[in-house]
């Protein structure tokens, strides 16, 4: 049964969920407007596909830096911080689902900004959303260039590999709907989980004599730390923002919920996503740091030696490509919807529709390419993006969303209400601290990286693998 016919047999959906089938072959959506047979089906993603898209918006790039974050903090603080940040972002993700059902016209975080702070809020959060996902797309292209350099033994200039990554990100990111992209997300997730992409390295470093970058003379024992009491503020805050980056698929969940066939199934997709993601992060972070200690590589796939590194990146490439194209698509889709909102061109395959859509995906890919080429140090780019844009995308707005819907609750305020207000204040304060402190730490780290002799330079041809 085709997706269009499946919509027809389901019958009319409750208007409060954003879609109602007014007639066969026709539907109206609170975000995409009138959708007919001659246009893309923007409401075609099932809950399982949504879970995979959620997982792919997180697993892929962030996981490659989790062991390095544990090195900065130590195993115990690292696990505690990962669970804490995972808990906060899971709550934020849950609030998105609740808010979307109450406000079906909300498509992105800028709509939240408009409800909370008016026009200024829309502009600020809309700009932050675009910058955030464009930076993340840039980190995906950088990760792809590292993988291509690895499997090809640096067959060409790194700047060329970044450009190739940008071209593929643009081509596949231009697929119109998340429903059609979901199979690529399955492929990317399969390359990481089922094909044991990162686990290949984990097993390798667990059974071999020592990690690739450790000294080759004498007996080697892992120098992992239970608690790293010697960590500086810069190292600690950078590690925290790296973990934030690993969980910061949150703003994409607005777009995913908007294209779900049945948004009431959002929570089951979210639970599946967060359980798998958190378990995977813990396993990879603990095992790899335990066996590699301070010699864990960033990205972590380089920790298993030359041969294992090539094999691992061979499996990794589909997953890294899937992440990159998803980031390009989500950013471009946001701009596309904003440009054509309220017009028939949004949900119809007109010339205007295609010109605007391709222009959006090409523009996002180009800017992401420039970012990836200008900041070619993977761990530094991850921490900077996580600090500057990740926290304000995952912490503060979601607390504001709960307060917006519950602040004027009639009647006497219960203890539960007061505790939730206190929780929201904590989320706002902690998010602001991570944003300011993490940005400072990341900038210092990037400056130190560029100051080192032999460090990577912008648009460099040097091997970044």
Automatic annotation (TrEMBL):
<feature type="transmembrane region" description="Helical">
    <location>
        <begin position="152"/>
        <end position="172"/>
    </location>
</feature>
<feature type="transmembrane region" description="Helical">
    <location>
        <begin position="72"/>
        <end position="92"/>
    </location>
</feature>
<dbReference type="InterPro" id="IPR013057">
    <property type="entry name" value="AA_transpt_TM"/>
</dbReference>
<protein>
    <recommendedName>
        <fullName>Amino acid transporter transmembrane domain-containing protein</fullName>
    </recommendedName>
</protein>
<feature type="transmembrane region" description="Helical">
    <location>
        <begin position="416"/>
        <end position="440"/>
    </location>
</feature>
<feature type="transmembrane region" description="Helical">
    <location>
        <begin position="381"/>
        <end position="404"/>
    </location>
</feature>
<feature type="transmembrane region" description="Helical">
    <location>
        <begin position="184"/>
        <end position="207"/>
    </location>
</feature>
<dbReference type="GO" id="GO:0016020">
    <property type="term" value="C:membrane"/>
</dbReference>
<comment type="similarity">
    <text>Belongs to the amino acid/polyamine transporter 2 family.</text>
</comment>
<keyword id="KW-0812">Transmembrane</keyword>
<keyword id="KW-1133">Transmembrane helix</keyword>
<feature type="domain" description="Amino acid transporter transmembrane">
    <location>
        <begin position="46"/>
        <end position="444"/>
    </location>
</feature>
<keyword id="KW-0472">Membrane</keyword>
<feature type="transmembrane region" description="Helical">
    <location>
        <begin position="236"/>
        <end position="257"/>
    </location>
</feature>
<feature type="transmembrane region" description="Helical">
    <location>
        <begin position="310"/>
        <end position="330"/>
    </location>
</feature>
<feature type="transmembrane region" description="Helical">
    <location>
        <begin position="351"/>
        <end position="375"/>
    </location>
</feature>
<feature type="transmembrane region" description="Helical">
    <location>
        <begin position="269"/>
        <end position="290"/>
    </location>
</feature>
<dbReference type="GO" id="GO:0015179">
    <property type="term" value="F:L-amino acid transmembrane transporter activity"/>
</dbReference>
<feature type="transmembrane region" description="Helical">
    <location>
        <begin position="123"/>
        <end position="146"/>
    </location>
</feature>
<dbReference type="Pfam" id="PF01490">
    <property type="entry name" value="Aa_trans"/>
</dbReference>
């Amino acid at each position: 049964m085709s997706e269009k016919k499946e919509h027809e047999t389901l019958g009319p959906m409750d208007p409060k969920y954003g879609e109602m089938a007014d007639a066969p072959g026709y539907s109206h959506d609170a975000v995409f407007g009138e959708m007919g047979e001659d246009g893309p089906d923007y409401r075609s993603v099932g809950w399982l596909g949504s879970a995979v898209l959620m997982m792919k918006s997180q697993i892929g790039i962030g996981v490659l830096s989790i062991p390095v974050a544990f090195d900065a903090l130590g195993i115990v603080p690292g696990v505690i911080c990962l669970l804490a940040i995972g808990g906060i972002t899971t709550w934020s993700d849950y609030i998105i689902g609740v808010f979307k059902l109450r406000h079906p016209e909300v498509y992105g975080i800028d709509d939240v900004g408009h409800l909370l702070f008016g026009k200024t809020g829309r502009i600020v959060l809309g700009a932050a959303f675009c910058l955030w996902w464009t930076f993340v797309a840039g980190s995906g292209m950088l990760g792809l260039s590292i993988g291509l350099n690895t499997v090809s033994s640096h067959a060409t200039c790194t700047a060329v590999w970044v450009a190739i990554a940008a071209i593929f990100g643009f081509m596949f990111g231009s697929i119109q709907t998340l429903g059609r992209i979901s199979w690529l997300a399955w492929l990317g997730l399969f390359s990481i989980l089922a094909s044991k992409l990162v686990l290949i390295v984990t097993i390798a470093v667990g059974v071999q004599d020592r990690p690739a970058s450790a000294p080759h003379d004498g007996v080697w024992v892992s120098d992992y730390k239970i608690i790293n009491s010697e960590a500086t503020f810069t190292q600690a805050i950078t590690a925290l923002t790296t973990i934030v980056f690993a969980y910061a698929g949150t703003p994409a969940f607005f777009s995913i919920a908007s294209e779900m066939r049945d948004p009431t199934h959002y929570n089951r997709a979210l639970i599946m996503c967060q359980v798998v993601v958190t378990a995977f992060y813990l396993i990879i972070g603990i095992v790899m740091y335990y066996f590699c200690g301070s010699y864990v590589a960033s990205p972590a796939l380089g920790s298993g030696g030359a041969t294992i590194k090539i094999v691992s990146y061979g499996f990794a490439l589909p997953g890294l490509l899937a992440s990159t194209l998803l980031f390009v698509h989500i950013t471009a889709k946001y701009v596309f919807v904003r440009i054509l909102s309220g017009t028939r061109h949004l949900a119809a395959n007109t010339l205007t529709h295609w010109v605007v859509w391709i222009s959006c995906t090409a523009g996002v890919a180009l800017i992401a390419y420039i970012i990836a080429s200008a900041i070619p140090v993977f761990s530094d780019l991850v921490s900077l993006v996580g600090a500057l844009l990740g926290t304000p995308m995952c912490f503060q707005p979601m607390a504001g969303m709960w307060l917006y819907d519950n602040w004027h609750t009639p009647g006497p305020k219960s203890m539960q209400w007061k505790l939730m207000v206190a929780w929201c204040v904590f989320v706002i304060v902690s998010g602001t601290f991570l944003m300011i402190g993490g940005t400072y730490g990341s900038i210092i780290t990037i400056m130190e990286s560029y100051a080192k002799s032999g460090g990577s330079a912008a648009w460099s041809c040097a091997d970044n693998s």
